[in-house]
Amino acid sequence: MSVTAAKGFSAAGIAAGIKENGNPDLALVVNTGPRRAAAGVVTSNRVKAAPVLWSEQVLKSGQVSAVVLNSGGANACTGPKGFQDTHATAEKAADVLGRAPIEIAVCSTGLIGVLLPMDKLLPGVETAAAQLSEHGGEKAAIAIKTTDTVHKTSVVTTDGWTVGGMAKGAGMLAPGLATMLVVLTTDADVDSATLDKALRAATKVTFDRIDSDGCMSTNDTVLLLASGAGEVTPEYEEFAEAVRAVCDDLGQQLIRDAEGAGKDIKVEVINAATEDDAVEVGRSIARNNLLKCAIHGEDPNWGRVLSAIGTTGAAFEPDQLNVAINGVWVCKNGGVGEDREKVDMRYREVHIVADLAAGAETAVIWTNDLTADYVHENSAYSS
Amino acid sequence: MSVTAAKGFSAAGIAAGIKENGNPDLALVVNTGPRRAAAGVVTSNRVKAAPVLWSEQVLKSGQVSAVVLNSGGANACTGPKGFQDTHATAEKAADVLGRAPIEIAVCSTGLIGVLLPMDKLLPGVETAAAQLSEHGGEKAAIAIKTTDTVHKTSVVTTDGWTVGGMAKGAGMLAPGLATMLVVLTTDADVDSATLDKALRAATKVTFDRIDSDGCMSTNDTVLLLASGAGEVTPEYEEFAEAVRAVCDDLGQQLIRDAEGAGKDIKVEVINAATEDDAVEVGRSIARNNLLKCAIHGEDPNWGRVLSAIGTTGAAFEPDQLNVAINGVWVCKNGGVGEDREKVDMRYREVHIVADLAAGAETAVIWTNDLTADYVHENSAYSS
């Protein structure tokens, strides 16, 4: 269902020939109205891809009529020509759809530093437009995959309105955001300011808290488009919760499909003095290569958790730290706790709890283990 | 030669039985005077091992008579009992050597969260004391190895005085400092304040700028001991340069022996607005797992360099960034530069230059590639 679960949207996904292997590589999502309110969040990387720079301009008006997304090339670090290519893509879509170019968002993903084959991409936009369908969400989700092994979609439906979405992302996954593209749609009748508020609140506690490999992308974009076709304006809290739920579900799907990963690691920081402290400690643990290797080896190496906590500026006393791995408190008061032999690490999900004993705040960061497969996937070829 | 290259020092290295495999695991370095001035730098990790906490107290007086070092166990996160064990070690050495316990520094390295076998360590101190020799530096350097494949020593000799040292460290190598122990000795007649100044200046630009895996240890200690046996007080600049040269040499040896590494990567940041900017950018590049995998695959993936630069707060404009890999400017003005096929990456050393085009400051950070061997070494067993 994906982006076409909500009323007022059509989508398509095709193989335009951007990828040399002939796999689907171009998606089009169109808001058929009656409204076209939108909000978006983009990477905080200061080296932003051309489509990110363009889509930031588009989002200023709070209106998006359509989104063109391509895999097979990030169009990042491609200079003025790269920006012209993004602009030409928006103009082509606007022309075919009868909309204004400034209402066409563009997203790209793939190798950095390579120009897109515009002789394939522009005809591809026409082909995709001809295949637009209210059932096209699945095909669109498939067309934006890069190293993803599965496509990711999610839908929440409540009384009279729906929030649905699609996502791609498998490597370069880190907060602010990840190498990921996400398009969310809703048929609720919500203005762009409300969409923006709900989207930022949702990404802050979902996509911004998954950190597969600590690497921040140049292309990340999360868009939320509202058609108003459901003719219902929900309560803000209810709507924001639906957006958060879809973002959370998609984020979990990203972590479960991360490059080379064998374990999904839930890092839960509890009893922190502030939420910022909890997030800082969670990220430090999630980015510790030695710990990620240990988890891969099913070794409950809590010393590496403590050494990661120790690099942060969070409030804590070293001799009051406690760490549980899969429910066993292997570290108590900064020293040896329960028998580490009790920790069962056979399953894919690993749960680490770091108790800072410094307050009442908490945060969860999701990450993956570090594996030889990750190294292989990111060294054997350019991506 | 190592720590006994300078006059006024004796050392020993023995197998005390701390390591189950029977390899050497206990070193003793004694300053035989006439002076016993000393300075030290320890990890900035807030979770500090018991020997670090003890040695910090020892260093307050600016006087160190001897150093006891053990491999086979870090004595970190071991609570009050761990601290008592360190204290007992210092008392034992003081007793055997006829010195005050507060002048005995202690260093430990190995697995975190395990108490040391004191029934083996304390008799080991006696055995080592009995084997002290002016030619014992090499044996001491061997006894502090953990996952090191070779022992590391360095000596600079000038007119009438010498600075020599030994180091261990192979994983958990990151600034502030690394999982490394370093003991430097000199027969120059230098007071502890001058030693401290020279040592801090040296570590800031050497050990603090090697970053193999971004992980900061709980045990790192660098000690500089002066015997005054050469009866020469050098000019400060000359002395500081000798200390820096020995630290630089030992740091290079650590990088070349890093766990699982196949490439040594020199990240040189040039034309930065400030030295801090240069260091921040260098560290961000050096810690980027995706780039480190690409280098392992001999792929000059400059897009990953730019995405790492983009996560920093340093002064730069994205469209003015230039990147050279092994002398080929593969990225110019933030976009595609010279043909990446020209980059020869067959050799072990890889040189990345990141030109921020924002000033005149520079910094060099050394790191390694990320390999399946690193993953294996850190997942197959606890360390």
Automatic annotation (TrEMBL), chains A, B:
Gene: argJ
Quaternary structure (record): Heterotetramer of two alpha and two beta chains.
Site (Cleavage): A178, T179
The protein's name: Arginine biosynthesis bifunctional protein ArgJ
Cellular localization per UniProt: Cytoplasm
Record function comment: Catalyzes two activities which are involved in the cyclic version of arginine biosynthesis: the synthesis of N-acetylglutamate from glutamate and acetyl-CoA as the acetyl donor, and of ornithine by transacetylation between N(2)-acetylornithine and glutamate.
Keyword entries, A-Z: Acyltransferase, Amino-acid biosynthesis, Arginine biosynthesis, Autocatalytic cleavage, Cytoplasm, Multifunctional enzyme, Transferase
Swiss-Prot/TrEMBL site (Involved in the stabilization of negative charge on the oxyanion by the formation of the oxyanion hole) positions: T109, G110
GO biological process terms held by the UniProt record: L-arginine biosynthetic process; ornithine biosynthetic process
Family: Belongs to the ArgJ family.
Enzyme Commission number(s) of this protein: 2.3.1.35, 2.3.1.1
Active site: T179 (nucleophile)
GO cellular component: cytoplasm
NCBIfam families attached to this UniProt entry: ArgJ, PRK05388.1
Gene3D superfamilies: ArgJ beta chain, C-terminal domain (3.10.20.340), L-amino peptidase D-ALA esterase/amidase (3.60.70.12)
Class in the EC hierarchy, top level: transferase
Binding site for substrate: T146, K168, T179, E259, N378, S383
Known pathway: Amino-acid biosynthesis; L-arginine biosynthesis; N(2)-acetyl-L-ornithine from L-glutamate: step 1/4; Amino-acid biosynthesis; L-arginine biosynthesis; L-ornithine and N-acetyl-L-glutamate from L-glutamate and N(2)-acetyl-L-ornithine (cyclic): step 1/1
Pfam families assigned to the protein according to its UniProt record, in alphabetical order: ArgJ
Reaction(s) this enzyme catalyzes, per UniProt: L-glutamate + acetyl-CoA = N-acetyl-L-glutamate + CoA + H(+); N(2)-acetyl-L-ornithine + L-glutamate = N-acetyl-L-glutamate + L-ornithine
GO molecular function: L-glutamate N-acetyltransferase activity; L-glutamate N-acetyltransferase activity, acting on acetyl-L-ornithine as donor
HAMAP family the UniProt entry points to: ArgJ
Keyword Acyltransferase applies: yes
